[in-house]
């Protein structure tokens, strides 16, 4: 893609962030009886986190993909 800030062709750098889906799954697991540490599993799995896309050259935040 092309960065809107520095106007260079780039491949975005991604950073995973804890989002609403992570908290929702953790709460649901805790309510279902997985409260001995298993409810923390969504906090360690990338598939349950939001994704931020950044330009690797100027560090401009391009987009956030929200899982929920």
UniProtKB/TrEMBL annotation:
Gene Ontology molecular functions:
zinc ion binding
LITAF domain ranges (all copies): 1-67
Location in or out of the cell? Endosome membrane; Late endosome membrane; Lysosome membrane
Protein's UniProt keywords contain Transmembrane helix: yes
Q: Name one Pfam family in it.
A: zf-LITAF-like
**Major subcellular site:** membrane
**SMART domains, per the entry:** LITAF
Report what the protein is called: LITAF domain-containing protein
The species this protein was found in: Gopherus evgoodei (Goodes thornscrub tortoise)
